[in-house]
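> Could you send the Large ribosomal subunit protein bL35 prediction when you get a chance?

Sure thing. Input:
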Amino acid sequence: MPKMKTHSGAKKRFKISGSGKVIRQRARHVHKFQERSSRAARRLVPDVEAAPADAKKIKKLLGK
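Output:
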């Protein structure tokens, strides 16, 4: 049986933490920071855990 390939889009967007949680970046954290207040931009900085409902699907796409 052939090896399962990692989903290219998922590997760019998600990572698995050491404890097995799926980590994602917050929405709107890519560009246009000059239009946001410093406070709003700082709020987007920390990565967060993906919703448990999505985690199972994401792990499957990542081959975990």
